[in-house]
């Protein structure tokens, strides 16, 4: 009976449907959290994110057990099988009989009573035979191994192998499959002072060697616990380094052209005289306003709904363009993203990024700086965008700030380049460009 299906599992299938329809996984989770208890929310998030994280591996296993492969079943049924497989493989708190029987009932609930036997048989076989199913060997077929075992789209790992070599690509793919740590960026106090206050609240934390403004908050503390103890934003060190790399002069006016959810805007407001934060989405810009109010900095950050291609600002000393991108540096934090991005997205986003850069150029005062950043690892969105912008705009020149960030996170041209396989955090790219006086 459908009413035997637990509410978190019902919610999991709903989230999978929403993501297939184009929603982001974190937004889809927020939509169903309201009807769940906190403990069930954590269980649901582990199931959903884990299933996306290991989808390539799961699909390889299911493909070996389905007579006509994974493409032969309805998308709803395939997601039921994926969710059940993840419970069997990775969630030790779930008894195998419950993973199988609940998946069977979930298929019935989804409107597929005739495939209940198929779901039962495939998952029972996975439990018995899963460890005997072979994956492509890494040395003769690195792309096949990384696509299946390391669970990434083949077209993407092929790009990474060509750029960094097979071993580095494997390190990147495996880094993406780790659960992300919790990091904060203190505001108004140093990381050392924040660590002391966290300790007084019995929250353990540790510094991040290559990101002096970051703290790693250790389990079991939550983000809410940490933010209740210190004035801060939740922010990966890669994003924190973008702000440090920007080297905002004391008292400067800053324009943040794609600001939501506002972490970089608030961090820049620590030194800036004023930060004008813009974003195309009213819902997202509201988060900037809420975050500024939460830390008591509403007067330092002004927010406006605006299109970065037609920004309604006068020129300023610093312009940050944290551009929309494929997000290939954040797959650890957003595991559904790896299955959403396509090769076509690279060309479309590169064109948008070029348009945004051209619109940002006149907003930089002579002698001021334009900081272009992304959370992508792809050349088309990073180095190529900067080089083509400089060719179109000879009034700009590269101008890295001296000693702003450690040398280990800079490339040969002095641009910020944070890589998950090297630094163990999100990926980020930034270039600091000065408008000639």
Write the layout of secondary structure elements.
Blueprint: H1 7-20, H2 25-33, H3 38-53, H4 55-65, H5 75-90, H6 96-109, H7 116-129, H8 142-148, H9 154-164, H10 166-176, E1 182-186, H11 191-200, E2 205-207, E3 215-217, H12 223-229, E4 232-234, H13 237-246, E5 253-256, H14 263-269, E6 274-279, H15 282-294, E7 301-305, E8 316-322, H16 337-340, H17 343-360, E9 364-374, H18 383-392, E10 396-398, E11 416-418, H19 420-423, E12 428-435
Parallel strand pairs: 5-6, 5-8, 6-7, 8-9
Antiparallel strand pairs: 1-3, 1-4, 2-3, 9-12, 10-12, 11-12
Helix pairs in contact: 1-2, 1-3, 1-5, 3-5, 4-5, 5-6, 5-7, 6-7, 8-9, 9-10, 13-14
What is the structure about, briefly put?
By secondary structure, the protein is of the alpha/beta class.
